[in-house]
Specification:
The complex is a heterodimer of chains A (about 475) and B (about 210). Chain A is mainly alpha-helical and about 475 residues long. Chain A is about 75% helix and about 0% strand. Chain B has eight helices and two strands; from the N terminus they run αααααααββα. Classes of the chains: A mainly alpha (about 475), B mainly alpha (about 210).
Chain lengths: ~475, ~210
């Protein structure tokens, strides 16, 4: 259906086509990514599970899971949100639905190619930027640059004088992603090695989180909460504090990922202070959104999109408390290289950002397809399975990380640590599998919404009809 | 020129521009979205300031630093004196160690000695190693850390000294912190200017006539 529009004239393509394409692609990649995550967790919980085949070895599968989730699920859900929200906030149409469709098409192709190569062992071996360099260039040319062009041109061609907070974040993040991607992969283009490569790798990895995932996820909350509750955003000023503190404090602490490396100590000192200052945008963001909820807290219980968003916002509190302090010299010494970090990464990607993206995809797909959610019960089941599954994963891995940290410091034999953390590996697998199961339900629910969802009358929002038959 | 500087803590924007901005704020429909003009709540301001203070206090490399050989030199100097030997013979190692600590109460390293207490057995192991190092001319024992039973050159690499050797002492303040202060200053100045360009927070927009 979508494919037939790839060669149609832009004017002939229905509004929202590219957002819908991105939305469903994101959910499918989320299912693949969490499925791989569940498979990998099973290998850690049950060491005899699927052995003897190189392609299914943990070392091959782990980074396929990581990149499927970051560049498949999270980034495509972001693209969906941008294709949907950016034009609305400018009272205009998306600059080019056709570019959006091709962008999504090429995104899927590049990701499929990259992940397949990685699965076969063709990888640069650099965390979060594991694709070989020709694919890195393809990602820049076919994914991040076209996305930025579409978002920027839509904002430039807006029919408003002002620009709403969400679009500041969208515009800045799409621009920064290009810079981060091209600069972060320099070690691969020019074969930089050693400490330079290590620093560049973590500069890239940190900024993918700090200048892409965190601000875009926050931008979604800035849209969903005022839109669905009908409340004005509490404070335009706090929005400024949030935006500029992200720019200043989140772009600089890359060296805090390498606190034990022989980097200049002053660079670590600088990065470590900036690392704690990440709490400044977090304070601004959380306070602004929660204060916007004033008088509408009933919707936290009643409305699916608000519930997803507020949970994501609340998870930003532990996320940034952990992120701010775990990188200081004294705490990093204990938890570096342990499961604590795995738990923290999942708190960021599966907790904070996934809940916000899910809200955007739920709201966007229903609005653009003009169809009410097929089953609110399935939607609620999705929410609870995701929340309980994520919480199980996070808590179990945090405990496992503390055990590993103690084992590291007190020089406990490695095998004893492995035995001690085994129950938590099983809990991790259970939690991850719940998340995977919830995603299958979600895909089914959205697919059925597209096919059989009750049409939404013109001028109404999906959440207004959620409890109407 | 839309800037005014006669009352910078009040506003930085010309009254006409403020009026224009207010009208736009109330009239413009950004896809059905509206924004209020509330000030930064006091708890938010307090939390931000607390974060800045905490950022410096928790990252200064004072915490978790290993003990240097220098902090035990005074202990070693007195451990074989007749007074200590007598206490040791009459009351044992613990009492002798307690007296050594008392004798060094006013040491320049008192706080570090307090954070890294040792026993007489530890001192017996460290003594020959530290004495051996003290034979080296112009040595700075703060360049050496005590790692368990061994005294090792510290793994921190600072600037070069005139004799070509590196400083091996981690300072509690380095240029990283100075850059942080610069960053913070620029940030707060920038954000304050941005906010002072907005209409005053005593004014709230009426959205869609409400």
């Amino acid at each position: 259906m979508i494919l037939k529009y790839l060669f149609a004239k832009n004017e002939a393509i229905p509004v929202g086509s590219s957002a819908i394409f991105f939305g469903f692609s994101a959910i499918v990649w989320f299912m693949i990514g969490t499925g791989l995550g569940s498979f990998n967790a099973a290998k850690l919980a049950f060491p005899d599970f699927v052995t003897g085949t190189e392609m299914f070895a943990f070392g091959h599968m782990r980074q396929v899971h990581v990149l499927a989730v970051i560049f498949g699920w999270i980034s495509m859900a972001f693209a969906m949100a941008m294709m949907y929200i950016t034009p609305i906030l400018g009272n205009t149409r998306l600059w080019s639905e056709k570019l959006g469709l091709w962008n999504c098409m090429m995104w899927n192709v590049c990701l499929l190619a990259g992940l397949s190569l990685m699965w076969m062992g063709v990888t640069s071996g650099r965390e979060y930027s594991d694709f070989p360099w020709p694919l890195d260039l393809a990602v820049a040319v076919f994914i991040s640059i076209p996305l930025a062009i579409n978002v920027w041109m839509t904002i430039i061609n807006r029919r408003t004088q002002g620009i709403y907070t969400t679009n500041w974040f969208f515009a800045a993040s799409t621009f920064m992603l290009i810079i981060v991607f091209l600069v972060g992969n320099l070690p691969e283009y020019f074969h930089l090695t050693g400490l330079t490569e290590a620093y560049m790798t973590w500069w890239f990895a940190h900024n993918v989180l700090g200048l892409w995932i965190t601000p875009v996820a926050a931008a979604i909350a800035y849209y969903v909460i005022p839109k669905v509750t009908g409340n004005p955003l509490y404070s335009h000023r706090i929005g400024h504090l949030h935006f500029w503190s992200i720019v200043v404090f989140y772009s600089t602490p890359a060296a805090h990922h390498l606190m034990s490396a022989p980097l200049p100590e002053w660079l670590k000192s600088f990065a470590s202070v900036e690392g704690v200052l990440i709490l400044v945008p977090a304070i601004a963001f959380v306070s602004n959104i929660l204060l916007t909820m004033q008088g509408k807290w009933n919707m936290f219980v009643e409305n699916l999109e608000v519930r997803f968003t507020v949970v994501g916002v609340l998870l930003a509190i532990p996320l940034n408390m952990q992120g701010g302090f775990q990188q200081t010299r004294s705490i990093n010494w204990y938890i570096h290289g342990t499961g604590w970090m795995v738990a923290h990464a999942h708190l960021a990607l599966l907790g904070f950002s996934t809940f916000l993206e899910a809200a955007a995809v739920y709201l966007g797909l229903q609005t653009l397809m003009k169809r009410k959610l097929y089953s609110l019960t399935l939607g609620n089941l999705h929410f609870w399975l995701l929340l309980i599954g994520f919480s199980t994963y996070w808590v179990s891995m945090t405990i496992a990380g503390l055990i590993q940290g103690a084992g590291k410091i007190y020089e406990v034999p490695y095998i004893d640590v492995v035995i001690a953390e085994h129950p938590y590996m099983i809990a991790r697998w259970l939690g991850g599998t719940m998340v995977f199961s919830s995603t299958i339900l979600w895909l089914y629910n959205m697919w059925m919404t597209a096919r059989e969802g009750t049409p939404i009358p013109a001028g109404r929002m999906p959440h207004e009809l959620a409890y109407e038959r | 020129m839309t800037w005014v500087f006669d009352a910078p803590l009040h506003t930085l924007t010309h009254a006409e521009t403020v009026a224009k901005n207010k009208a736009l704020w109330e009239a413009e429909d950004l896809g059905g979205m509206t924004e209020d003009n509330n000030r930064l709540p006091v708890p938010v301001v307090v939390l931000v300031l607390l974060t800045v203070i905490t950022a410096f206090l928790t990252t200064i490399p004072l915490w978790g630093q290993r003990p240097t050989a220098a902090i035990y030199v005074d202990y070693i100097k007195v451990m074989d004196t007749p007074e200590i030997v007598a206490i040791q013979g009459a009351q044992g190692d613990a009492a002798a160690m307690k007296r050594i600590v008392e004798l060094n109460k006013n040491s320049a390293f008192e706080s570090q000695q307090g954070r890294h207490p040792v026993t007489m057995d530890d001192l017996r192991i460290l003594k020959p190693q530290i004495e051996e190092l003290m034979k080296i001319p112009n040595i700075d024992l703060r360049d050496y850390t005590v790692v368990g039973p061994e005294v090792k050159i510290a793994n921190f690499e600072g600037n070069y000294r005139e004799n070509g050797k590196r400083v091996r002492q981690q300072p509690f303040w380095d240029k990283g912190y100075t850059i942080d202060v610069f960053y913070l200053t620029m940030f707060f100045v920038g954000v304050t200017i941005t906010m002072k360009r907005l209409p005053e927070n005593t004014w709230q927009p009426r959205h869609h006539g409400h």
